[in-house]
Amino acid sequence: MEFSLQQVLLLSICAALVGAHKTGLNGAGALSIPISIAIFGAKSSTGVLLPILIMADIFAVAHYVKYTNWSCIVKLVPGSVIGVMSAVLLGQYIDDNTFKKLIATAIIVCLLFLVVQKKHKHLLVTLKKSKTFAGFIGVLGGFASMIGNAAGGIYSTYFISMELNKNMFIGTTAITFFLLNLFKLPFHIFVWKTITLNTFLIDLCTIPGILIGGFLGVKIVKLIPDKYYRGFIIVMTIISAIILLYR
Fold it and tell me: pTM score, two decimals?
């Protein structure tokens, strides 16, 4: 795959958005998905973005790992593994247009969860104790992550239901996606073949964008009061979903 200067610049913008997303500006990363799809196509873009996501994960983990809620992560692991594996198998038989529809469907499901949580707050108590809910979120999130790196809203919905504070939310999200993205990596390289030496070298060129986005994310999140952060996450998820759905 050959890259033009314009593609590299656009990819660097995606990297900055991902960096900001990983350090607390949830939703910003989803803005990179339609840009990358426009440049590389739906399926190929998932592989091109993955190393960028992992590099940004490392930045976020280094900054927020001390705030991680490991019990939340452990509950998601079995379902997430099933979701990723299901997507790996399905992804070998579907075209780019179907990929776009699946990504859009994942985002719609995210929005439905947010609506249900907002109107039926009593469900939060039940959901916090439900292994079935954690398993369902894991399967859906793993699938959406493998299909289109579009699981941010899904996992955010779960962590919101756990009522984590701002820093705990960011740290737990960072570790979750770092582990998930590492798990996805060999499938992109050896099964889908969406990551090559060429795409990886181009991804390395976006490191400055990741660092700039990550730095800005840390600074901006500090300005958001903890009591308003949940509402901020919901709004950012809705905005990013609309952009993905109407691209």
Answer: 0.87
